[in-house]
Write the structure tokens for this entry.
Amino acid sequence: MSNTTNVKAFAAAAVDADLKLIQIDRRAVTPNDVEIEILYCGVCHSDLHTARNDWGGTIYPAVPGHEIVGRITNVGSAVSKFKVGDLAGVGCIVDSCRTCSSCQQDLEQYCLNGFVGTYNGKDKHLNQQTFGGYSEKVVVDENYVLAVPENLDLAAVAPLLCAGITTWSPLRHWNVTKGSKVAVVGLGGLGHMAIKLAKGLGAEVTLFSRTPGKTDDAKALGVDQVIISTNKDEMKSVRGKFDLIIDTVPYVHDVNPYVETLNINGTHVLVGYLGALEPVLQTVPMIMGRKSVAGSVIGGIAETQEMLDFCGANNIVSDIELINMQDINEAYERMLKSDVKYRFVIDMASLKK
Ligand code: NAP
Ligand code: ZN
């Protein structure tokens, strides 16, 4: 197709294939677009789920990456919010219908016509799948681009674009404030951001983890208490305690023991696992305590900007391990073993090598 720019990217060609270097097309900048040279891209567990078709529906070749930060290299004629040279971020959403009731309320993540994902979505302009941030450049409508605070370490900002907003949105929706009792299930990419952001909002924070070896790290991240979720006595010690639990576990797990630890009116929010719950969810503790089990997906564009500004003002970034693009397959294996503190971020300069 003419009028496109050919750029380098890393892609999975099939469900069982390692990610490898390919060339992809980026659309020419339209009046409302900005072109961003990608400097860093975070590695989310969703990237791995998509590359390996865990959720079904992956279109190959798949270029993952939705924790993008970089510098603007070109702007369309109608762009008003950004100029060449600005820092910019792109998260999980690059477009939505803009007219449904969700979009009208700045809830693009719940667009009734389906938001356009940064990868594995449908690019309206090129009529092909969208390609994510494991690449040199991206072209995005300015309305879906975020301003990045200048005072933070740029590489460590990248994970805020997904892990940050995915945990910020439920904290805000369920009105977490000073003194709220919040628990986080799983200390990974999302979990460590949930801890930092909840602490930033003044909450008392508990971590539920399977992994006793993470206790010291959790304390260093600001956690007030660690509960080993496989220890029945420890679980009993926090019965009826929490206003909000953010559950980041990616795979099927028993939610019932966590519901027991909710206070009256408390909510257990699933953000990690997509699918049917096993064993079945018991309703008695929910009914007898007006408790909820809920879900939440990323966050809207305005809310993402609010989160980035909050992080800028409070010096909050992700704890990262910087890798080269060529190390991505090994990074996926390590992520599966929870062997990362606490987010891999790709240094995109490595793609030029
Ligand atoms: P991650 O870095 O791999 O962290 C997941 C954590 O969950 C692990 O560190 C581990 O913590 C725990 N865990 C892993 N496997 C487990 C198992 N079988 N049983 C119990 N606990 C387990 O992943 P992430 O990037 O934070 O992503 C977490 C999930 O959220 C993924 O499924 C991802 O696709 C999803 N996600 C959702 C949204 C959304 O909008 N809702 C956005 C981004 C990502 P411990 O060792 O401490 O137990
Ligand atoms: Zn993600």
